[in-house]
């Protein structure tokens, strides 16, 4: 039996790092048949050596990065610390030392992916990051390999489990946003500071990574227009049900003749769309290609073992490449320089809910303002009349973002409008 060992170092042993450690131990007896060699965790970098870590061999722990980067026997470095620094510096040093890197760091890749991939290519090293997007769902490898024969023009997805759980509870159990967030926090789906999730920042980083790979052109986090779900109310949910739709926080990326459109925001989604049935903390990514047509990838978007599953898949891939001497065969796939379309120029349909004066001529005056700004009305619903106030719901046809924004600014100054309560895009 082949007794060759491939040595791995873990940078961080939090939730994901612990899951990776467990999987390597769990699969130890089949590694020779899986990759042609044994796999061994030889070092684990931690910040505090004195902290108790149940199930982790304490003799592997170190707080000295140099012990890892300067060890010629360590061939694979697995970064699961998160954050920009010191992860960026350590990954670059590992690559320059000829070590292969697996990372789950979406924040880093969405901001500095080109720098890291260029360093990997220069040294003919692997840099794999399946776990950076959608946890345990395979999507990076399918985009780079399985769907490589396609011209992909659309990638949309539910890529944040916290917000999907919150919206599911609001939709199915009539919870308020605050109640659903409290429940998500209680169950561990939401962090103590949930800003990155509920304001769309986490999803924005993931969409930047997917768009870069799908469209072969660099998209960074700063290119992504992000909006969250904090303004979604029970009234919006009720109208979505009436319209046979759900509301989901979607990451949306389109490759168009005018450039790449990319954003994260809540959208009304018809119940017939496959993404509409994705509930609770599950994630899903929907892809359209010219050859494959529609494809959807669905599963657990986070968690110790689901995310560790994606990391482990990358580790095994790197180990197989080491055994066959073919590392670095798939490097950066961004060979185009497609412009990023200005968000104001993107066209969307909109669901608008506003409180207006309950008197003749108000709807006509609103329609005039919309008409003057190039906004076409597709549907009008009037309900909930209270004295001199009525609630008006308007659904528009596709319209440029800036046209609608200018129209709404004028309407907010109108004496006929008490409040514009909701502005939600419709898929």
UniProtKB/TrEMBL annotation:
<dbReference type="InterPro" id="IPR036291">
    <property type="entry name" value="NAD(P)-bd_dom_sf"/>
</dbReference>
<comment type="pathway">
    <text>Amino-acid biosynthesis; L-threonine biosynthesis; L-threonine from L-aspartate: step 3/5.</text>
</comment>
<dbReference type="InterPro" id="IPR045865">
    <property type="entry name" value="ACT-like_dom_sf"/>
</dbReference>
<comment type="similarity">
    <text>Belongs to the homoserine dehydrogenase family.</text>
</comment>
<feature type="domain" description="ACT">
    <location>
        <begin position="351"/>
        <end position="425"/>
    </location>
</feature>
<dbReference type="InterPro" id="IPR019811">
    <property type="entry name" value="HDH_CS"/>
</dbReference>
<dbReference type="Pfam" id="PF03447">
    <property type="entry name" value="NAD_binding_3"/>
</dbReference>
<dbReference type="InterPro" id="IPR016204">
    <property type="entry name" value="HDH"/>
</dbReference>
<protein>
    <recommendedName>
        <fullName>Homoserine dehydrogenase</fullName>
        <ecNumber>1.1.1.3</ecNumber>
    </recommendedName>
</protein>
<keyword id="KW-0521">NADP</keyword>
<dbReference type="Pfam" id="PF01842">
    <property type="entry name" value="ACT"/>
</dbReference>
<keyword id="KW-0791">Threonine biosynthesis</keyword>
<dbReference type="Pfam" id="PF00742">
    <property type="entry name" value="Homoserine_dh"/>
</dbReference>
<dbReference type="InterPro" id="IPR005106">
    <property type="entry name" value="Asp/hSer_DH_NAD-bd"/>
</dbReference>
<dbReference type="InterPro" id="IPR001342">
    <property type="entry name" value="HDH_cat"/>
</dbReference>
<dbReference type="InterPro" id="IPR002912">
    <property type="entry name" value="ACT_dom"/>
</dbReference>
<keyword id="KW-0486">Methionine biosynthesis</keyword>
<comment type="pathway">
    <text>Amino-acid biosynthesis; L-methionine biosynthesis via de novo pathway; L-homoserine from L-aspartate: step 3/3.</text>
</comment>
<keyword id="KW-0560">Oxidoreductase</keyword>
<keyword id="KW-0028">Amino-acid biosynthesis</keyword>
